[in-house]
Structure formats: C-alpha cells, structure tokens
Amino acid sequence: ERGGIKDPHTRNLATGGVGIVLFVSAWIPIFYFDRLGRKTWFQIGTVGMMAAMIGITILQWHAEHHPGDPANYTIVVFPYLFYVFFNVSWGVGSWTYAAEIFPVSMRAKGNALTTASLWIACYIVAQASPPIADAIGWGLYIIYSGICVGAFFFVRYALGTSLIIPNFRQH
User: Fold this and answer.
1) Contacts of 12 (CB under 8 A, 6+ apart)
2) pLDDT for position 161
3) SS3 sequence, 57-122?
4) In the prediction, which pLDDT does 2 show?
5) Could you give the percent of the chain with pLDDT greater than 70?
6) What burial letters (b/e) apply to 106-135, b meaning 16+ CB within 10 Å?
C-alpha cells in the first residue's frame, strides 16, 4: 500500500507472485552456485539487492508525491528483483559458507551458532522494520541500501581471508 497500489486484489496478486519468484529463482543456485564461487555470488547478490532497495526507495517517494499515478505499479518489480538476488546469493550462501568455514572439529557448534545468529537477526529485522517504516517511510529502504553497501565491502575485502581459530587446549 505504501508503494501506491490501492487495489487489494492487485496487492494480493503481487504478494502471491513472491512465492513463484522464490521458487523459480531457487533453481538457479542448484546449477550455477559452485561455478562462480561464493564471493562472486555474494557480490552479485548484494549489488542486485541494493539496486532493488534503491528502486523501492525512489518509487515509494514517487507514490507519496503522486498518489494514484499508474507508474506506482512498477514498484512490484523491485521486491521481486530483491528476492531473486537474495535467493541466488545470500539465501544459499549464508548456509553453505557457514558450513565450510569451520574446521571439522568445530563444524557442528559453528553451524549452530551461525544458524542461531541468522534467525535472531531475521527476528530483529522483522520486529524493527514496521515501526521504523512508520516513522521514516521510504527512508527505511535507504537504510537497507546502506546495509547492502556495507555488506558489499565486507564481502569484497574480508570474505576469503583466512579464519584461523586457535586451539588452546593442552595435549
């Protein structure tokens, strides 16, 4: 509704399309994720998600200033793009990368910790986003875009460096 789509039937169709987009885009990593490498997919996904967030920002601003404009319906494309880019990169990579970075002796604990932190972060975002959106509207997507910029630089410059976890146990 914030995007300027007033018709409830159209909003429901757009929401239903999310499931289709997620299902279809879930097949891409099955065939291509290992070919390009984790870091490349994370970078592609982060840039695509950031572009989608910028598109949502611009179109929500437009809908706020031009209610009823048929151009407001183009906002539907950008969440779909976000889901595609997320699904082919972070949606798959966050689980696979976490399983690969820990030594075998710590893999179960490491996976448990990364899975717990992922779900805690999802919960925090789900709880914090609605009040922030109520307070600053389309500005929330500027924040999300900034997070994507930070994630891009993290992936670009930190991912792939050695994670040496010292073993301080005495033998």
Assistant:
1) none
2) 59
3) HHHHHHHHHCCCCHHHHHHHHHHHHHHHHHHHCHHHHHHHHHHHHCCHHHHHHHHHHHHHHHHHHH
4) 59
5) 90
6) eeeebeeebeeeeeeeeeeeeeeeeeebee
What pLDDT score does 127 carry? 96
Element (H, E) at 53: helix 38-65
| Rounded Cα gap, residues 171 and 32, in angstroms | 43
150 in Cβ contact with 47 (< 8 Å): no
Q: How far apart are CA 59 and CA 3, in angstroms?
A: 7
Cα R_g (the chain), whole angstroms: 19
Place of tokens 């997919």: 41
- Residue 99 reports pLDDT greater than 50: yes
- Cα torsion for 89, 153, 140, 9, to the nearest 10°? -20
Site of tokens 């710590």: 106
97: which residues sit within 8 A by CB, 6+ positions away? 38
- Residue 52's φ and ψ, nearest 5 degrees, are -65, -40
CA distance 94 to 89: 8
Q: Which amino acid is at 62?
A: H
